[in-house]
Amino acid sequence: MVETRYIFRVRELVRHHLRFFLCATVAALALRLIFLFRFASITADSLIYGDIAGNWLRFGIYGITTPQGIAPTFIRLPGYPAFLAAIFSLFGMQNYRAVLAVQIAIDLAACFLIADIARRTISARAARVAFLLAALCPFFANYAASALTETLEIFFTTLALDFAVAGLESLPSGRIDPWLGCGLSIGAAILLRPDGGLLLISVGIYLCFALARALQAKDTPPLHIVQAGVAVLFLAVAPLIPWTLRNEHAFHRFQPLAPRYATEEGEFVPSGFNRWVKTWMADYVSVEEIYWAVPGSEMDIEKLPARAFDSEQQRATTSQLFAEYNHLLHITPSLDARFAALAAERVQAHPFRYYAELPILRSVDMWLRPRTELLPSDTRWWEFNDDPRWSALAIGLGIMGIAYVGAALAGLSRARMSGSAALLLTFVIFRSLFLGTLENPEPRYTLECYPVLLLSASALFR
């Protein structure tokens, strides 16, 4: 059993500043209730998760409902369906309002975890600031009122980082308890979404560097670092074993995670089209207008940015491909091969743009774009053709996001670079680099880094 004394020592801080934390918690709850009653979001992904959870509860089948009946599936990892199934069993089937209420409570708990990391790595004063920043963060509040994995993913990511920071403090003594908690938390994050594995890789990379340093400086017994790494790896991967065995039994394939494109067994993946998208995709608006349109909706070539064409010939070729797709509303293997040929031509002509420039732009877009994807604001907010209040909301959230990043950078310039800070930054940098390689730059993917961002900003008040 992981000893709770390694975490939540922030309760002493709360006891000494009870009025502050009480007022901040009330404000945090009020903000989240505004989103719950005004902007609650049940998306298509929410319904897929809910369908799996319902079938799992009623029929014992981890599957989706089809015209032919319930079909077993592996397109989603079991973490969030299990969470929904637990809520549905307590409060009634498809009771998403109860789901969102529980997520709000989990989100508030994450705020205390962020404060605890700040207390450990910076100061008690910074911990209060970090709590306030997290409590009033509209991006956390928005997703807490959305039936998606983000809130739970943020919570377990923060929990894992808090345990890791506690583990670094206890490395010289060889205590293994916090590393057990770190591994279990990472395992929970992976069961929610495959990219939770980035946290495991980040912790592993840092521990490898720590081991190399310990072998030279001899300030920490190397065996203690090895034990920590083994514990984290085993407990993070162990929860995937039943899932992998289930998929091997049901589908006769090795599938430890969900497929990259959430495809069913034997479903065609338009890899050529996806690679062509990566030759020009840099912002979220194109994800909605082009990438998500396939299959089933028409694509408008006028929505493509100028960087999607290197010549008039490429524009003509792209126009022809779009016309064929719009006639069928799905991509056939032959059409996909032609998209692949176009992508190869563009990559060969501009490899630096494909492998460096565009990934950086996608990562920057995910960090700085106004996070209005679940709100009524127009995705093309900069054109100001929306209702003025929603345009103002988009601009306000954009300014707030830039302010968060700016404050974090300023805080880092003042912070003392300790081992804990290096670990946290390793996670943020590695995740940002990975996200830049994706063809769909969705702003929500950087939210798991926000706990580190907020506590970095709190260093301004150390």
In short:
It is built from 20 helices and two strands.
Describe this structure in words.
67% of the residues lie in helices and 2% in strands. The protein starts with 9 loop residues before the first helix and ends with a helix. The protein has a two-stranded antiparallel ribbon with strand order 1-2. Strand 1 (63-66) and strand 2 form a beta hairpin. The protein has helices at 10-16, 18-39, 44-59, 79-91, 96-121, 124-135, 138-144, 150-170, 177-192, 197-217, 222-237, 240-251, 271-278, 284-289, 312-328, 333-349, 351-368, 388-414, 419-435, 450-458, and strands spanning 63-66, 69-72. The protein has 20 helices and two strands. The longest helix has 27 residues, at 388-414. It has 462 residues and is mainly alpha-helical. The relative contact order is 0.11. The model has no long low-confidence stretch (mean pLDDT 94). Helix 5 (96-121) runs parallel beside helix 8 (150-170) and helix 13 (271-278) packs parallel to helix 16.
Number of contiguous helices: 20
Count of extended strands: 2
* Class of secondary structure makeup: mainly alpha
Q: What's the overall average pLDDT, rounded? A: 94
What does the largest sheet look like? Answer: 2 strands, antiparallel
Low-confidence segments, given as residue ranges, are none
Portion in helices = 55-70%
> H/E series, N to C?
HHHEEHHHHHHHHHHHHHHHHH
Question: Beta fraction of the residues?
Answer: under 5%
Shape: globular
C-alpha-based Rg, rounded: 23 Å
Span of the ends, CA to CA: 34 Å
Which strands sit side by side, in order, in the main sheet? 1-2
